[in-house]
Amino acid sequence: MGSVEGAVVMESNMNAAVAAAAAASAAADVEERNNDESMITNLHLHSIPTLNLDQGDPTVYEAYWKSVGENVKISISASQSLSYFANPNSFCWFLVPKLEQEIKILHSLVGNAVVDGRHIVVGNGSSQLIQAALYALADPLDPPTPITVVSAVPFYSCYPQITDYVRSGLYKWGGDANAYDKDEAYIELVTSPNNPDGEIRGPVVKRANGMLLHDLAYYWPQYTAITAPADHDVMLFTLSKCTGHAGSRIGWAVVKDAEVAKKMVKFIEINTIGVSKEAQLRAASILEMISANGCSGGFFEFGQSVMAERWKKLREALRGSEVLEVPHFPLKYCNYNRDFIGSNPAYAWVKAKPGVQLEKAMNEERIRVRGGTSFGCPSNYVRLSMLGKHEDFDLFLKRLPSIIQLLAV
Amino acid sequence: MGSVEGAVVMESNMNAAVAAAAAASAAADVEERNNDESMITNLHLHSIPTLNLDQGDPTVYEAYWKSVGENVKISISASQSLSYFANPNSFCWFLVPKLEQEIKILHSLVGNAVVDGRHIVVGNGSSQLIQAALYALADPLDPPTPITVVSAVPFYSCYPQITDYVRSGLYKWGGDANAYDKDEAYIELVTSPNNPDGEIRGPVVKRANGMLLHDLAYYWPQYTAITAPADHDVMLFTLSKCTGHAGSRIGWAVVKDAEVAKKMVKFIEINTIGVSKEAQLRAASILEMISANGCSGGFFEFGQSVMAERWKKLREALRGSEVLEVPHFPLKYCNYNRDFIGSNPAYAWVKAKPGVQLEKAMNEERIRVRGGTSFGCPSNYVRLSMLGKHEDFDLFLKRLPSIIQLLAV
User: Which position among B82, B133, B170, B363 has the lowest Cβ density within 10 Å, counted as fewest Cβ atoms?
Assistant: First the structure.
């Protein structure tokens, strides 16, 4: 099966244990998929299953976590963590101290963010932290009208909805940062590497009264070269994209200003009265294990191998085609790897010829992706997740030629 | 020590194992407190420690959970629950099926809510579910002005802030439900038993265009008689007040209308992309254990004993005083106990003579409580938590005579 091959032919610098684990897990995926497929076949005779490459559900890392087996198992008794409080004397009173410690250790090891003297705020994923940061940054201005929130196209498809869903009077979505030309205060969301296109980004507005919110969910070695420790006012990270534990709903902010950090905590206090202690305890164990394994043969090495392999396969499948394009990324020196590496983003930002309805075309081939309009772009673009299961990714590659053929007509 | 006595003299219908566990845990609390006190004494010579009876942090149940020991321990491996999805084919795609099942089993056993044919929505605590319900109920109206949210005084102190903190254009806080006399649509929050005063409540506005949101966090046998299964449009519950696991941030809504339930799920999707799977798995284990133990010698029996004991002690301490009053509750037939029982609410709603600044007076005695104004009432009222640690509660009782003396002057 394709996905087993995929696991076996992984990059040669991947250690044997990890490769074996990946192969075993890929085989399990195949079995699971076969069961799913036979179920679907029974229900809809002769139909082919729909592949979901829409969400960035990071099941790509499952093989690694299966390989570590019982080593990172956590146990929680019924009498543990009853209280709302994890650290009553800290400004972030719901943050488990061990998690704060492991977050700081990991950033120091990877070298992707300055954490010394910074304030860590834990959230229920980085979506909640974006809202907490908007609340914290908008609040001191006490604006008679809501502050404008912008991000350069293509921007993360959820930003408009996250900003506007409760019609807040504190902040409102303002669209493409490139088009912002007002003198009023604004908040610019800077996503780097960018979702959906993987580009390394800085702010684009650069006007007076601007505040920046850096979403660094993908600034980890499996996706891009770590060129310097990021050192911005508010930086957001999430376990989902760092380790693949999306089900845990753990994100964190690294914040320079104590008052901003306190207001973010206030938001999370009102919104959800903190963050699950069970999820924090597990996240702490997982980060501890990653740091303990260090830079060689560990999680990020697995992540780099598997992402590089997927991108290689995708580029091979598109080679010679003039109807679909994906971005190319320059090699950059990675301080973590101590070598030049390319980018292997979490998503492929696929471009067809202008006028093509690419999401619709892929849907007709039973491939669910997210159309360009969700990202503020034309509909000849789609984002497809590179983070799903091996088997799904390989099935996608098998169906790609027919899509290319269809579009070439 | 007071708290050990407290545990030992618990009501005679409490089984021996539970009583022993309570005594052991109370002793541990004493040790912890002694350590805390000696630390504080070193820092602030001759000062007495501040007792926190402000938050409803439900550590009162710790003794029970210590007594069950390893029996309800959950273990989660690193490869479990990576995905955002817990049940991809359900409308509430982030709800762990086992938790849904255990929620329904427990409600059926206790008899406090109709769950057959109802939709369960899990949230990060019931605070998030309140917001999800406001979003769901306000949304279909698409109002040019935000819908008014009211609750009868004394109302839960967090309702105004939860409603207004992001200045939503969908809903706004409207204060005391008794004063609502408009013809426009409104949402009434009905809390029963009520926080802070323990009263059993129904809606008070009863006008056309009204929508009801029932917060039933305290409708469990340890607080009040279960007189009938509640059967309202939207009912909110939380693990914090049911079992004492506040640190887990697990709440759930029981919802009649499928469209309302779907919109609540949409809110939680945008707000936090679901709810921690670790917390849900642990909650499922805990609820399963409670249901397995049934109606005798189990968690609710412990809860009833410990709450009844605390209320008995508080009433004894206030006996003969004319300066402080707490509410009295009639005996009611409890379907769960199959007997007449009194109410032993999670909070004591304490009233002093008009004009007394009761929160201030208690603060001066180093007792942190929540003042009446937070609940829409005069400042001669305070809410004090009955849910804290044994030792804190007993220290409070020891200091109560001096407060009474002070107020009697």
Answer: B363
